[in-house]
């Protein structure tokens, strides 16, 4: 790889605010190729905003974002298309296109984004569905006919369909029962291992975070307050991290409860 | 309390909204000519916006033409000039009522459907998902609807014109005692290309307004079911108002005397 030296993704001093509310207040983060980072943090701390900034769905107010050493902060047109082709994403509620059958959902990026023929794309879709443990009989169904866990699997199949280099997981286990959550975690771990991709996940499910990550970063008040290997999360020595991973109501993090 | 503060706030919000809409329009229009073009989506939308609006537009045009004939008959009867009924019916339908009725009906049907569909896609992150699948939502969602609407609305108006005139014909011959052949001859002799084409031009503009307001409101809907509901309402209300306003300005430009 020519860009082997530069990290896969790098964020430098990224700031984003909506009106008077500062959501990201100078985020610095690097992801090396092949690593699995999980960003943890409470609801509304800007985890999703971080991901949307990297994808260019939102534009940061300040700071720079690099993918493979290329500045993509304000990328448009072809640069942006080329950048987006490296990504796959699993959305929180799967975000499947309900107007299309399952196989077309999985094949969507191939057909629309890369101009693969429909017949070929269908074969690839069925192959990817098999990878997430779904049979060919599911391919013809509409997403509305599937359970939440199956929708997540289809979403995962869609995220890996075009062989991305980087996969984002947005709350992969939210809304699933504990067993299905673990099944999804296993699927994530095995697909990541098979494909050798770089992953960035956001979650507040600690069991999931421990399982699918090699590194954890905690986002609080718009900043990364802790960043280290997953194995050291219990010895972080950071009261914010401790409060979060043990899920205590008492501690330095005060939940904003409006009167 | 400073009474100017809320006035200023409303004014600033209005300016911001206008700016957002202008940027959205500019982006949508420039994406029309840039590859890739999603022909399949365009065809699908042409069917949904144009073909499936035919019954609604046809029925309203028929009854409007009929009511128009009745009213003109009542009015002209007082002066003993009932013979103008076919002339005024065809003029009224092709110049004003055809495009406006078709525009408003399609606004209710299509702008609402577009806003609800895209709004739901927005709040369920399906629009963001498009981006992550290397597909530009502007090109994939907005352009096909815009193009389909601009192309099909003029065609719908031509149909509405024909059915509206037919509605007037049915009422005039069946209950007002007109001779069928004379009625048709008067209609055909009187109507000019300018009457019909002015309505078609209006229709194209209305088509643009309908799809644009549907897409814009859908794209910017926030916060779940309530947000989608608000977007749908806004799409119908704003496109209806813009259609009537645009109709006035187009009439004053097209029929300058």
Summarize the structure.
Chain A is of the alpha/beta class and 259 residues long. Helices cover 35% and strands 24% of the residues of chain A. Chain A is globular and about 55 Å long.
Which stretches of chain B are poorly predicted, pLDDT < 50 over at least 5 residues? Answer: none
The DSSP helix count of chain B reads 9
User: Biggest interface between protein chains, with counts per chain?
Assistant: A-B, 26 and 14 residues
What kind of sheet is the major sheet of chain A? 6 strands, mixed
What order do the SSEs of chain A take from the amino end to the carboxyl end, as H and E? EEEHEEHEHHHEHEHEEH
Kindly report the average pLDDT value of chain B.
92
Which shape of chain A, going by the Cα principal axes? globular
Question: Biggest β-sheet of chain B: count, sense, barrel?
Answer: none
What is the terminal-to-terminal distance of chain A?
Answer: 55 Å
Low-confidence stretches of chain A: none
- How large is the count of helical segments of chain A? 8
Report the helical percentage of chain B.
over 70%
How does this structure look, described?
The complex is a heterodimer of chains A (259) and B (257). Chain A is of the alpha/beta class and 259 residues long. Chain A has a domain at 1-86 and 166-171 and 196-259: Rossmann fold (3-Layer(aba) Sandwich), CATH 3.40.50. In chain A, 35% of the residues lie in helices and 24% in strands. Chain A has 8 helices and 10 strands. Chain A has helices at residues 47-55, 77-84, 102-114, 118-131, 148-160, 178-195, 206-212, 239-246, and strands at 9-18, 21-31, 36-40, 62-67, 70-71, 87-90, 166-170, 198-203, 215-220, 223-229. In chain A, the strands form 2 sheets. A 6-stranded mixed sheet of chain A has the order 6-7-8-3-9-10, with helices on both faces. A 4-stranded antiparallel sheet of chain A has the order 2-1-4-5, covered by helices on one side. Chain B is mostly helical and 257 residues long. Chain B has helices spanning 4-32, 39-49, 54-77, 85-123, 126-132, 137-175, 180-190, 193-219, 224-254. The longest helix of chain B is centred in the middle third of the chain and has 39 residues, at 85-123. The radius of gyration of chain B is 21 Å and the shape is elongated. The interface between A and B is medium-sized, with 26 and 14 residues.
């Amino acid at each position: 790889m020519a860009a082997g030296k530069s990290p896969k993704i790098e964020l430098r001093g990224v700031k984003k605010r909506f009106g008077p509310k500062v959501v990201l207040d100078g985020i610095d983060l690097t992801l090396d190729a092949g690593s699995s980072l999980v960003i943890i943090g409470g609801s509304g701390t800007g985890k999703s905003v971080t991901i949307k900034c990297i994808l260019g769905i939102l534009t940061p107010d300040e700071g720079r974002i690099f993918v493979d050493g290329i500045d993509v902060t304000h990328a448009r047109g072809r640069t942006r298309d080329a950048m987006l082709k490296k990504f796959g994403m699993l959305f929180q509620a799967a975000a499947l296109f309900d107007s299309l059958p399952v196989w077309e959902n999985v094949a969507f990026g191939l057909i629309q984004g890369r101009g693969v023929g429909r017949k070929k794309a269908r074969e690839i879709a069925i192959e990817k569905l098999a990878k997430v443990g779904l049979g060919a009989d599911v391919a013809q169904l509409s997403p509305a006919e599937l359970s939440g866990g199956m929708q997540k699997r289809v979403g995962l199949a869609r995220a890996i369909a075009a062989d991305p280099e980087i996969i984002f997981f947005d709350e992969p286990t939210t809304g699933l029962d504990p067993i299905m959550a673990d099944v999804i975690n296993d699927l994530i771990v095995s697909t990541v291992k098979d494909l050798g991709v770089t992953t960035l996940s956001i979650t507040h499910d600690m069991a999931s975070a421990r399982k699918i990550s090699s590194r954890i970063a905690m986002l609080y008040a718009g900043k990364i307050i802790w960043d280290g290997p997953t194995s050291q999360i219990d010895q972080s020595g950071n009261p914010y991290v401790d409060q979060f991973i043990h899920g205590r109501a008492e501690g330095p993090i005060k939940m904003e409860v409006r009167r | 309390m400073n009474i100017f503060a809320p006035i200023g706030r409303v004014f600033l919000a209005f300016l911001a909204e206008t700016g957002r809409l202008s940027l959205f329009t500019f982006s949508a229009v420039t994406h029309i000519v840039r590859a890739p073009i999603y022909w399949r989506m365009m065809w699908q939308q042409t069917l949904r916006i144009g073909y499936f609006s035919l019954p609604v537009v046809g029925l309203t045009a028929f009854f409007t033409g009929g009511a128009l004939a009745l009213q003109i008959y009542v009015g002209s009867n007082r002066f003993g000039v009932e013979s103008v009924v076919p002339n005024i019916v065809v003029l009224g339908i092709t110049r004003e009522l055809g495009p406006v009725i078709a525009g408003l009906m399609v606004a209710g049907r299509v702008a609402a459907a577009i806003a609800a569909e895209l709004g739901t896609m927005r709040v369920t992150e399906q629009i963001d998902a498009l981006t992550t699948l290397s597909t530009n939502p502007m090109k994939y969602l907005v352009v096909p609807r815009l193009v389909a609407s601009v192309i099909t609305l003029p065609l719908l108006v031509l149909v509405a014109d024909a059915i509206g005139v037919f509605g007037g014909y049915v009422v005039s011959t069946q209950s007002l005692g007109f001779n069928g052949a004379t009625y048709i001859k008067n209609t055909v002799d009187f109507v000019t290309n300018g009457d019909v084409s002015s309505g078609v031009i209006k229709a194209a503009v209305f088509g643009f307004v309908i799809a644009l307001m549907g897409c814009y409101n859908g794209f910017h809907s926030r916060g779940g079911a309530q947000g989608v509901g608000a977007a749908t309402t806004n799409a119908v209300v704003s496109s209806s108002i813009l259609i009537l306003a645009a109709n006035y300005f187009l009439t004053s430009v097209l029929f300058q005397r």
